[in-house]
Specification:
Blueprint lengths: L1 H25 L2 E6 L6 E2 L1 H8 L13 E5 L4 H8 L3 H13 L7 E3 L2 H10 L3 E6 L7 E6 L1
Parallel strand pairs: 2-6, 3-4, 3-5
Antiparallel strand pairs: 1-5, 1-6
């Protein structure tokens, strides 16, 4: 009886985690970071904390720099943060104005975004799924 309950709970957790991963994939975006970032994967809650400024430093003390690609990853941003692109921008303007955060950098093309992430230590960004990556690494979202 106890084993059946454990199996049921484990199966439910697996289905839930697979459902979460597929939801992010459906948003059509990948998470990338500079090669200096000391992680290879993040869970969705950790990614949300980074994008909302709750996590400002990577393990080891390197500052997190968020870079946003205007208009091309809005669905993934909304799925991750629960905010529209406009609400996300307003959120960060308030944090910046109050001195509690630093406004994410913006890029207007995928090529510029990839260059900015590659050149900026601690940078993280969302790119359209399937983007050819050069000089950056893809972060697995669990």
């Amino acid at each position: 009886m106890k084993n059946n309950l454990i199996k049921t709970l484990w199966l439910g957790a697996m289905v839930l985690s697979l459902g979460t991963a597929s939801l992010f994939a459906q948003a059509g975006a990948d998470v990338i970071a500079s090669e200096s970032v000391p992680v290879a994967s993040l869970d969705k809650a950790a990614l949300k904390d980074i994008l909302l400024g709750k996590t400002a430093y990577w393990e080891g003390g390197q500052a997190v720099t968020i870079i946003v690609l205007a208009d091309k990853t809005d669905a993934a941003l909304q799925e991750t943060t629960g905010m529209t692109a406009g609400a996300f921008k307003t959120f960060w303007q308030r944090l910046t104005f109050s001195g509690r955060g630093k406004q994410p950098k913006e890029a207007d093309t995928v090529e510029k975004l990839l260059a900015m992430v590659a050149e900026t230590k601690g940078a993280i960004a969302l790119v359209p799924a399937g983007t050819e990556l050069k000089g950056v690494k893809k972060i697995e979202v669990k």
